[in-house]
Amino acid sequence: MRYFGLASQLKLLDKLDEWLGRRIRICFWKWWRRPKRRREMLMRLGVPRRQAIRRARCRKICWYKSKTIASGLWLTNAWLAEQGLLSLKTLWAKLAHLR
């Protein structure tokens, strides 16, 4: 963060934040591995049963699924922050005194 902390390109950090969130959603999806586990985890996150089944059994590639509305609604940035993901944008704002 020290390297980007000196830069004044906030758009770059926004794009990196988006990419990082999407990549972490993929990691969670792959970690859940089996459709049954995916369905259970989606239902824990508040997804209705019918939609959870449809999302869990979807055969599209992970990168595509990480951009869908469903993953954005239930694997939200707030939820990712609870899991420990730090936002580059907020870290950049904390280093504002260096600029």
Fold and architecture overview:
By secondary structure, the protein is mainly alpha-helical. It has one domain (11-98). It has eight helices and no strands.
Task: Describe the structure concisely.
The protein has 99 residues and is mostly helical.
Alpha-carbon distance between the termini?
A: 13 Å
- Spatial shape: elongated
* Strand residue content: under 5%
Rg, Cα atoms, Å: 16 Å
How many distinct folded domains? 1
Give the % helix.
Answer: 55-70%
Give the beta-strand count. Answer: 0
Strand count, sense and closure of the main sheet? none
Instruction: Give start-end ranges of low-pLDDT stretches.
Output: none
Helix-strand layout with pairing:
Elements: H1 2-5, H2 10-32, H3 35-44, H4 49-56, H5 62-65, H6 69-74, H7 77-83, H8 88-94
Helix pairs in contact: 3-4
List descriptors.
99 residues, mainly alpha, 70% helix, 0% strand, elongated
